[in-house]
């Protein structure tokens, strides 16, 4: 986990804009007033049989459900959008006998299904109706290719050098069955049923061409759960992600996306995703005092501000000492070691999900972070920072990297194209 934040990219539907199926001339405000009145009538009726329906909280729920991300564009969706409340990460392997032709047909099916679902439309005659009553809920679907995909499809000569396998790290305890894969899909939404609906539809679309290798489910805080937008907290209770690169920065595109003139050409405007399942050893972490936890991270737990002072976004003073002459930000603090200026400017855009998969056999929580980071070059991004963390990060004794994957995520599909078409039909 690096000390970087995720950009907020929410564009709420305004109070005056009605849903697409509203009668002409009826605003959302009018509909909300009607919904509230209906809720009160139902409540009065229900009271006769021993219960009352609460007035419908229409404004926040309707605005969240109505948010829509675009499928077609310069970059694939699911990279620049803000953190989403629910996510699924899935890797597929092509089945025996499936090659380039079958892969192209699969990506064509997947792209059309993603386009429809992201627009809040059913998938077709075989739709499961799981999300029938919901809007698109900011659904995003993102597709990527793993190292093994290229040999299986006869495209080894077009595999990017940047997709070479990640090196081993001392903190790795990797489960090969839950790592890598030919194809990778990231699903995110602000409604759990909408996210599951997309997951189920894409699994069905795989048909005989591909089988699921692994699947991981994650979550984040729901939009609107805090009084104002703020950097997310992880399951350790820490504000996690303060120094994420921002799209407004002049070198953002250069650090996160492959340039339009880059190599290989089919990766133009794409990015590389590193995916890690990072188990948090919460029982050990929670034995630390609040002060000890802050020293491990290098930031105040309450507001994310650096221990050297200021607010969350204040520049960290790495040289500041206390009355005894000790560094205020410990030499092995996570935030100090992971800073881009301590790693040759290495940067990655983090867009993670938390996970909790129950209680392990030893009684400890199987919980942590589904780490997803984006960069134009994983060797200069993730690998550079992780090597530094591997050599002395105070946080490393409280986390365990249990699975890993690296995927080439091509640029967005233009109107009439499917994702990966420039690779598969070149």
From TrEMBL:
Catalytic reaction list: heme b + 2 H(+) = protoporphyrin IX + Fe(2+)
Name of the featured protein: Deferrochelatase
Keyword Iron carried by entry: yes
Localisation: Cell envelope
Organism: Streptomyces cinnabarinus
Function: Involved in the recovery of exogenous heme iron. Extracts iron from heme while preserving the protoporphyrin ring intact.
Keywords: Heme, Iron, Lyase, Metal-binding, Oxidoreductase, Peroxidase, Signal
UniProt keyword Metal-binding present: yes
Family statement: Belongs to the DyP-type peroxidase family.
SUPFAM superfamilies in the cross-refs: Dimeric alpha+beta barrel (SSF54909)
Enzyme Commission code(s) on record: 1.11.1.-
